[in-house]
Amino acid sequence: MFKKILIAEDFQDTNNGIVNALSNKLHISEIQEELYCDKAYNRIKVAQTNNDPFELLITDILFKENHVDRKLRSGIELINAIKTIQPSIKIIVNSMEDNPSKIKTLFEKQKIDGYVCKGRHSLDELAEAIYLVYQNNTYVSPIINMVSNNNVFVLDEFDLSILKELADGLSKKEIAIKFKINNITPSSESTIDKRVSKLFDDFGAKNTTQLIAILTRDGLI
User: What is the pTM of this model?
Assistant: First the structure.
């Protein structure tokens, strides 16, 4: 298990809750805290210089503005800065954000290892996330997976092409005809019908209007 963790979170009560939960559940020997991104960065930099690096950073992505002068104003800026000095550090984001497309970006661009959505069960989830990330796995909160039914990352170009035509008001039969004319494969009406049905199931939509609304809300189209 990780032996040295840093928590970057601007609410002291949240910090205390995380520290207590992780100490009790995972028996991590050294858990440090910082309320500001700049101080978190400096602490990690000093530890790296002293050959006693932090193994895991747990950070929020939103930090409130206040009177303190800062260079790093968000968890994303903190992650980017830390990756330049310690690329191998494991990172779990613990935040209120529940937009799948934004969370996808954190995995793709910031190369985070886990995402926990703050909520009623987030401390238990955080412990699970740490355990999985320690084993070189990734973690995403179940509530995020429920939003997209485990498909945060798998809307392919064919799905997007179908969704665009549905949003423009075309029927599945009309989409099939258009795909054939434009040499888009597969183009059979039955295949398109199956893909649309799967999208309905994946996103919990009852009709095309609701599906488009869900995907638009989540920033997927």
Answer: 0.67
